Amino acid sequence: MIRTVARTFACFALLALSTTTLMAQQEADFMRSMGKMYVVVAVIAILFIGMVLYLYSLDRKLTKLENQISHHDEAETTH
Amino acid sequence: MSLWSEIWFLLGKEVKLEWRQRHALSGILLYVLSTVFIVFISFQQISPQLWNVLFWIIMLFASINAVVKSFVQESGNRQLYYYQLANPLAILLSKTLYNILLLLLLGGLNAAALLLVAGNPLEDPGLFVLAVVLGSIGFSVTFTFIAAIAAKTSNSSTMMTILGFPVIIPVLLVLVNLSAHSIGLLQGSMIRDDIIMLAGIDLLLLGLGLVLFPMLWRE
Amino acid sequence: MKKNWWKILGPLLVLYSFGMGLLTPLKTGISDIRPQFISAGDTVKMEVTGYNSFYKAAEGQLRAWLKLDQEHALAAQAIEVKDDRHLVLHFVLPPHLPQDADQADASLLIDSPVDGAHVYPGGIRISQKKTNVAPGSGAAWNAPIEKLHEKDAITFPFRNILGETIRNTYYHVPMWFAMFLLFIGALVHSINFLRRKDLKNDRWAAALTTTGLVFGAMGLATGAMWATYTWGEPWSGDVKQNMTAIGLLIYGAYFVLRFAIEDPERKARISAVYNIFAFSTLIPLLYVIPKLTDSLHPGAGGNIAFGSEDLDNTMRLVFYPAIIGWTLIGLWASQLLYRMNTLREKLLWGH
């Protein structure tokens, strides 16, 4: 669990840093156009990415669990 | 034995043990002095604001180093002995009291060293002393309890820092605020509120510690 | 299905907050004024840029004032409408200000029957060269401000630096609330574990904390994004930013602690004790919030301090459902984690 939490943090830190610095320098006018509406779009995109990352980590954990179960079953059939 | 006499007895034992192996105590005191000196050499000129922050940061690191050994030392047979004989509340309270005394000593030394090398920015020494007293109590209550948790893990001194620092930040913020008043960096009538809040949080943490410690202690 | 109604309610509320929050227009506002520095006695041509305004439709019925305070205002002599977004106002400033001062800050107030009245608060600086003026010389500042129009439509407030990002209130702030509510849930389960010694409670506490951390991370990332374009930098040491960071540190340490202990019963007990103790240290910070906010941002109202005056009733209609919705989604996510960990424990220990 701690590895996924750490990885999520790293992803978010990277995401926040890269997007904010990059966009602040190069596309400041784009982000500020239309009354800064694209900031709202970016925020919603971050939420979406966050939920997807959560699903991804859940997926990995489930895969691990499935592998454990199949090992378990194999062990039972061979005995 | 009543609770009080038990606390008194254990406190006496702590002091006696510390006195017998003076290198631990003198190590911590030397740590404070050398830190202050390093800070002085690197900064040369120390503004009142910096003075305030440096005091509390040195205090923070020194006290976490001083408190970490309170439960780690007690391994093996001695722990078994306590477990059978002493009331857990007496153990926690005696260690907390001992650490309060130790941190008051550290705070005094820290302040004296900073005053000597960096000048005296204090406008209200009484308030500053009060902040140090409340801070020592807060640090010692928090860190003694965290040390008890950290001692349950394999890597207790690293664990102590990881668990202790985030937990102390709120107390530290209020302390820095209060002592900024005593240096005259902040004006306002909030001093009373700060003092009441610090005393309140000290009491709250002590109360929580007393309720939770038995569950930690009894295996 | 009956038991799981809240799993439908959560996403529905969030969907509602997306729809309402994105489709509702902002109130008409003034986004720019040139020049902003004028002096008494001048004749000024002031170019005004409106936001969400329909000045063409209101041509001929527009009125505008420079407002110094409750009693003193100056009406515009003539108003030229260039297009829906741009106006040119002509002011003939009297030779003296009503106050005996070097300068004064004025607001610009525009009233339109189409858009309603809107204000550019306090951004216009009027200077006067001669100070020792005779009393009563400000008598020219006496234009009455009356019969203002109000637009009755569902809108969100317009604030100058925020612009459209005021909508982030529904997408960023609920992260913080949801995180805090999930941490409170974890606290309750930790207390219950110590009372009943049931490992179920420990698994719930861990699951709720994990989800809380994810929400906290999303809150920090979205907050950094929002702050970059409004406060000018990703991290400006606002109390809520700091508090979230401390919360993440504390609960990060909680997981480090859990991984440092092998035995499940012992792990559960010690981490529950730490959770209760650590959460209590957050109480002073909650109490300090109003005080620190004042000392950090002296006199900086409006866009920085997020006070009750910044949340009007229309916004509440979207904001509170968004908080409930995200919290329910968080609970759902935690429940998935909890169920999975329960299965894993069953597999590991055979019970």
Helix and strand topology:
The complex is a heterotrimer of chains A (79), B (219) and C (351).
Chain A: H1 2-26, H2 28-78
Helix pairs in contact in A: 1-2
Chain B: H1 3-20, H2 22-43, H3 48-67, H4 69-72, H5 77-85, H6 88-118, H7 125-150, H8 156-183, H9 191-217
Helix pairs in contact in B: 1-6, 2-3, 2-6, 3-6, 3-7, 3-8, 6-7, 6-9, 7-8, 7-9, 8-9
Chain C: H1 5-23, E1 29-34, E2 37-39, E3 43-51, E4 63-67, E5 73-75, E6 78-81, E7 86-92, E8 103-111, E9 118-127, H2 173-196, H3 199-230, H4 239-260, H5 264-281, H6 283-296, H7 313-349
Parallel strand pairs in C: 2-9
Antiparallel strand pairs in C: 1-3, 3-7, 4-5, 4-8, 6-7, 8-9
Helix pairs in contact in C: 1-7, 2-3, 2-5, 2-7, 3-4, 3-5, 3-7, 4-5
Approximate shape of chain A: rod-shaped
The DSSP helix count of chain A reads 2
Distance between the termini of chain A: 32 Å
Q: Which geometry of chain B do the CA atoms define?
A: globular
Strand percentage of chain A lies at: under 5%
Mean pLDDT of chain A: 75
What's the total count of β strands of chain A?
Answer: 0
Element-level helix/strand string of chain A:
HH
Determine the fraction of residues in helical runs of chain B and give it as a percent range. Answer: over 70%
Continuous helix count of chain B: 9
Largest sheet of chain B: none
Q: Kindly name the structural category of chain B.
A: mainly alpha
Report the end-to-end length of chain B measured between terminal Cα atoms. 23 Å
Q: Specify Rg of chain B, calculated over alpha carbons.
A: 18 Å
The percentage of residues in β strands of chain B lies in under 5%
Weakly predicted, low-confidence segments of chain A: none
